[in-house]
Amino acid sequence: MKARLLKFFKDWMLVIGMFTGAGAYLIYMQIPSIHTAGPVLEIICRKTQPILLFLMLFISFSRIEPRQLRLQRWHPWDLLVQILSFLILSGMVIWAIHSTGPAASWILKHRILFESAMLCMICPTATACAVVTGKLGGDMAQVVMYTILINLAVSVVVPLTVPLFYPQADITFVAAFSRILAKVFPLLILPCLSAWAVRYLMPRFHNWVASKMNLSFYLWSVSLTLAILMSTRAIIHSNCSIWTLIGIALTSMTCCIFQFWVGRRIGARSGNRIEASQACGQKNTVFGIWMGYTFWNPLASVAGGFYTIWHNVHNTRQLYKAKNN
């Protein structure tokens, strides 16, 4: 009985995490007496998530030797899809800002949807992507290498466009680049350096960490619960109409489907369907939400909340199929 219960929780951990996160916030909303603790609970969630992401990536890097991180044939193509789609969408909005006419007016009227799509397309690969890729039978090292590449690309591409979107906000390339790099370094570069330092300086501890791959999955489940909780909060408290919310939800879902699909098509050319699809479609939505309310219309960050739901529904389906084939 105990073994069956553990298997059930392991098989449905992601679904349980999603419902737990959404349910926890909805229950919180119905109990006014604990609302005074809200600010403290929010701080705890925001502080806990980076720690979980650091630990997940630390464990992933511990299982990967530095020489395994090599450029793959599908890497440039996935990068091209994300960067080019972001530049096209941002270029359309920038053109509309400085133009007149029906087309420009239509784009500006639906600007929040364009910014939502931009965020979904350029958002970097999730830290936990390597964990899911490994569970699906893919090569974790290839995904980790792409995670590094796309984060570096985001650090350059996003700051280039922000001053053109909001010229009155006085956000320069250097300022935006510094803010993004300050987010990327502790959650990407530092775990990498730490894991490789442990590999050579503390080999016994390194071997122990590398053997705990399932721990990454459980850490991801907790992180997912917190992400869904915060996403539910953002969606509920967004000051926009139900139709705008529906539009953002459909936009993020379309971007999610497209990126998993195009990644799979790209990966098929080199026999890396799993790696290319997961790297392109599974997003670091916590980072995306931060980019949304930091550089664009804060409502665009809601797209990151919806995307959290869509890509985890897809991952749950993928993991279920992998276990039953």
In short:
The protein contains 15 helices and no strands. It has 325 residues and is mainly α.
Q: In terms of quaternary structure, what is this?
A: single chain
Terminal Cα span: 24 Å
**Biggest beta-sheet profile:** none
Q: Give the ordered list of helices and strands.
A: HHHHHHHHHHHHHHH
Number of helices: 15
Range of strand content: under 5%
| Overall residue-averaged pLDDT value | 78
Unreliable sequence segments:
none
- Residues in helix, %: over 70%
Can you tell me about this structure?
It is a single chain. This protein is an all-alpha fold and 325 residues long. It has 15 helices and no strands. It is globular, with a radius of gyration of 20 Å. The mean pLDDT is 78.
Short key terms for the protein model shown above:
325 residues, mainly alpha, 15 helices, globular
Describe the secondary-structure layout.
Layout (H helix, E strand, L loop, with lengths): L1 H10 L1 H17 L8 H25 L11 H24 L4 H8 L1 H12 L6 H7 L4 H26 L7 H29 L1 H8 L2 H24 L5 H27 L4 H9 L3 H11 L5 H23 L2
Helix pairs in contact: 2-11, 3-9, 3-11, 4-5, 4-6, 4-8, 4-12, 6-12, 6-14, 6-15, 7-8, 7-13, 8-9, 8-13, 9-10, 11-15, 12-13, 12-15, 14-15
